[in-house]
Amino acid sequence: MNARYDVVVVGGGNAAFCAAHAAREQVERVLVLEKAPEQWAGGNSYFTAGAFRTTYAGLEELKPLLDEADSDILSRTELPPYTPDDLLHDMKRVTQGRSNTLLAKILATEAYEVVKWLKEKGIRWRLMYERQSYQVDGKHRFWGNLVLGTVGGGKGLMKQHTAAAREAGIEVRYGHAVRSLLGDGREGVRGVVCESDGEVREIEAEAVVLACGGFESDARMRAQYLGPGWDLAKVRGTPYNTGDGLQMALDLGAQPYGHWSGCHSTAWDANAPEVGDLELTNLLTKQSYPLGIVVNAEGRRFVDEGADFRNYTYAKYGADILRQPGAIAYQLFDAKTEPLLRQDEYTAPGVSRFEADTVRELAKKMGLDPESLQKTVQEFNSAIQPGGF
């Protein structure tokens, strides 16, 4: 490994590799430093479904991006336009107007061009039929304006990123933890201090990019910034996102910015391990809740399951679950809605699942009060308005 580089990127997820690809277009010597060992490569990006929110004028604009597009299924696909204005509207609505206006505009106007650029780098795309569409009158209709994903999900995304980086001559080093930034004495950065196999060394660089995630894998920092009880939360992904990059930037005088007491938190299987499962990755999430009801350990509902499409609510409902007694909740579905669930999520190995013929019997199996659950279901059903399903 050279002692000096044009650009050093700290981190090994999607953001890090995007930065490395962009840097390599401009300079020769680009180095990616990932704290995790290679078997944990990919950061939290590895644990995602590989879904990318982008704009599109319609199906025809996305066709050139798709990997091995099936003309038969495409002919039965309905995909209305999703414009930059639509994306901006969604950003404002979901964040209640708190998103950074300039950054949101950049995202909305450049998302499609970035997706095309990533295809040129070797990222393979597909339409996420099984995740984001239903068949209605013989047509595949997408919902939630999230249609494009990577072939192979998060695993495929990171495999493709890594192959593209190495082909472009980008150095990728695993098991290399960046401990601090080297200041230049003029409020700038001239490199990093890196540790690997017990050896500490300085690596100089013209530029350093911090793309090393947040602090979600550090229980102390979760409790410190997110609040009481957050140290009990399970981690969906990598155990290596422990806030190192944030802390080293702050130590050098960077300005804290953003929503430190908020985070992406989703409904996660109660039997899941404390950190991500490298095989099941995102299948331990439970995201079909708009098709049923969600109750806490007292058998009571506490969120509006159908407030919006799942895409716009799932990342905040995890926090609502954590605030419930025992930090646990149960999703209930009937015989009509069960076939519509994401079967890979709800039948994955080891998934927490109870089945019964009556609500009272189900409550007993789950350890809930039958009277309370029966009352909740009856009240919900009595509030339903007439109409087609």
Average pLDDT, all residues: 95
For the biggest sheet, the summary is:
6 strands, mixed
Evaluate the radius of gyration.
Answer: 23 Å
User: Helix proportion of residues, in percent?
Assistant: 25-40%
How far is it from the N-terminal to the C-terminal residue, by CA?
Answer: 61 Å
Helix count from the secondary structure assignment = 13
Based on helices, strands and strand pairing, what is the structural class?
Answer: alpha/beta
Shape: globular
| H/E element sequence | EHEEHHEHHEHEEEHEEEEHHEHEHHH
Parts with pLDDT < 50 across at least 5 consecutive residues:
none
Which percent range describes the beta-strand content? 15-25%
Number of strands: 14
Lateral strand order in the biggest sheet: 9-2-1-12-11-10
Describe this protein with a few key phrases.
globular, 31% helix, 18% strand, alpha/beta, six-stranded mixed sheet, 389 residues
Overall description:
By secondary structure, the chain is of the alpha/beta class. Helices cover 31% and strands 18% of the residues. It has helices at 14-24, 59-62, 71-75, 84-94, 101-121, 129-132, 153-167, 219-225, 244-251, 314-322, 343-346, 359-366, 370-383; strands spanning 4-10, 30-34, 51-52, 77-78, 125-127, 133-136, 139-142, 148-150, 171-174, 177-183, 189-196, 199-210, 293-296, 329-332. Strand 6 and strand 7 (139-142) form a beta hairpin. Helix 1 runs parallel beside helix 7, helix 4 (84-94) crosses helix 5 (101-121) and helix 12 (359-366) packs across helix 13 (370-383).
